[in-house]
Amino acid sequence: MGMFERIERVSLPVRDASAAAEWYVRKLGFAVAGGEAGTGEAVLKVGDGETLLSLVERHPHRPLPHISKEGHTPHFNLFTPNANLRLADLRARGIRLTETVESPVLKCCEMYDVDDNVVGICYEKPTSRYFVPSAELLPPLFTKVLAVFIPAVDLERAIRWYVGTLGFTLVHHWGGGADLRIGDGETIATLIEIEPAAIGRLDLSTGEPFSYFTLKAADLEQAKARLEREGAETSPIRRSGPTCRFDVQDPEGWRIGVEEGRLPVFGR
């Protein structure tokens, strides 16, 4: 088994975790999967997907923007089995959407949640390697977290680091980016080549450290020791509820969460 099993969760900064969770449940049909009142965090399940969505209170609040200032690259996206993206349904629920972008293999756009975070929406066409047919007459809005996106000023260097240091598997190099798999997990990590001036970084100058996706480690202490031997910069291990975690930074300064233990997920 490799150092990491999967992407355990993606995270969004919110003003009020309970209010944000209620919005995702009511507007998008997500299910509350964990989190306790007063902790400043709510955990949601996206369809039957294995990767969770964590809503984390941060003050002052600064929403997660597009990765690219030119737009259309979110920090992560949700998979919809609906070829029309259910855009009419989303608009009828008062959800603000960007314009739709389409290619031979996919159709996508972004939405803004109640806290103005940018969240991607993607339908993979039958021509895509990630296409998943749905047997349901009326599929749900979303079934899983499809991918997290990581900007890379130097794509080849980033691929070498994520494969060589983190142990990810390169599954598709498509020129301007690369898709990587983590263990046997269903959510992929996509490196996107981007000019430094175009990166829309989240302002994290105040408050606790924030990582927008978190890896599940088979053994936290072994993972930390191995990463440090490889020269990676890591934070001290800290306890967060039922989990222990630390952060690691990639060569371009992006913070990645690593955790061991299991969030109290209902029904998992």
UniProtKB/TrEMBL annotation:
Classification via InterPro entries: Glyas_Bleomycin-R_OHBP_Dase, Glyas_Fos-R_dOase_dom, VOC_core
Q: Which residues form the VOC domain?
A: 6-124, 144-261
**Which Pfam family is one of this chain's hits?**
Glyoxalase
Supply the PANTHER family for this chain.
GLYOXALASE/BLEOMYCIN RESISTANCE PROTEIN/DIOXYGENASE, GLYOXALASE_BLEOMYCIN RESISTANCE PROTEIN_DIOXYGENASE
**The protein's name in its UniProt record:** VOC domain-containing protein
